[in-house]
Amino acid sequence: MTKERTLISQxxxxxxxxxxxxxxxxxxxxxxxxxxxxxxxxxxxxxxxKAGFGVIxxxxxxKVITANYGSSRxxxxxxxxxxxxxxxxxxxxxxxxxxxxLEIDYTILIVAISSGKFSLAHDAQFLVQDIVNLTxxxxxxxxxxxxxxxGVAHMLAKExxxxxxxxxxxxxxxxPRPGKLRLI
Length: 184
Fold this sequence. Notes:
By secondary structure, this protein is α/β, with parallel strands linked by helices.
């Protein structure tokens, strides 16, 4: 969260509210190992039946292999995230790699998928079971990536109404270097 800042002297800007000792862990997208494809997913839930998904797959150089986005009809945030993971898994038959990493920003889902405790995904239990069944006996792992490191998938989920042609042009110009996750 950004603190409001006020210019109180010629020497520079000072915080207008007391500083706390909490630090924010900034993270950036990191390229996977060779022969691994990383698929970043992000769901966007606004209100019931109004949600979006964004999926982007990149190789070890950060090159965008494919991307997908669209709207979905779900009833909760967790359902939006689960549907987005399923959309990411739909890409697997078209990708060739020895291993896949799916990065998501919903820790509870990672725990539910890896532990088999489907009750953690209260209103998406059956969908989580589908994910487990689809990934069983495949070299697929799930990892957490916060919004800062998942920026392109987040943008796709939020901007699901823009023209796909425009998205492809922008994605081809994504700078994959750490700290440079922005459209150029």
